[in-house]
Batch of 3 targets.
Target 1
Amino acid sequence: MTSPDNQLIAVPANSLAALHAEIRAVRILLENSNITPPDPWRTMEQICADLGCSHYTIRRRVETGEILAQGTGKTRRYRQR
């Protein structure tokens, strides 16, 4: 019995060329992309939406140390531990 790795299948040349071109295009897109992770520091509105709670709960969690906070006023940002 042969393993699936040793099996050959017939593929039309134009289909193989189209697949090769598509793979090449994806490779070019990936090489030219700049993927950066999302900023872990969130605004009050964002962290409320992420956690599904009110700004009162966020402030309480900051006081207990469950959520980190930096900055003041409108530039204040929050991050979960």
Target 2
Amino acid sequence: MYTLFVFLSSIIAVLLIIIVLLQSSKGGGLAGSFGGVGNMGSMFGTRRTADFLSKSTWWLAGALTVLAIVINLFFLPGQTTKEQRESIIQKSGQQIPQQPTLPQQVPQTNQQQPNK
């Protein structure tokens, strides 16, 4: 079932990309480049094509959102153990000191005074 939902969301994502690219923008969009507006315009009419693409975008985006929520809520929780969710630092078991330790002795430097 999980594989089916992931496959469906992938198909919806690809369709959403295609439909968004087919929509006309101020610059004409990709729809004019491939002849999509002419073919779809003759089938639906210019105004109905824009409505169809706009409604398709909203429906596909909604379906993708719902599928993503369903996958995350029902299929992903509980699949990993607590050990798998721990970070590398937590697994190493090293205790981080609460306060940094300061050096006890300041190293002396042998700097010569410049001659004037």
Target 3
Amino acid sequence: MVMEKNVARERAIEIGNADRRHASRLHLQVPMFVRGTDAYGEDFIELAKTLDISATGAYLTLPRALLKQGMLTLTVPTPSVSNSGLVPASMPPISARVIRQKEVGDIHLIGVQFVRPLD
């Protein structure tokens, strides 16, 4: 419960900074595989989720610390719906740079900026 209140407080602070945004944010929880190197130099792949997402970046929750300016690869898991070609089998990975992070309890809130804005 305390961790949820801390996350809510952090989101309120971030929302207050919305005037600096280049794109509108959606408060949307999207599962993502995050691949990169953590603050201790260890390569990892974790299933994370977004708290907010926009065309230019995302705010993620992860159980590990990362290096500021570190590069990540984000992949949205997609189920195989059909082979008809009407629904893409997957979306390409997203390259992102860590621009900020905050430790809240046993999780890290990670702000990333996409290398290229999403279409």
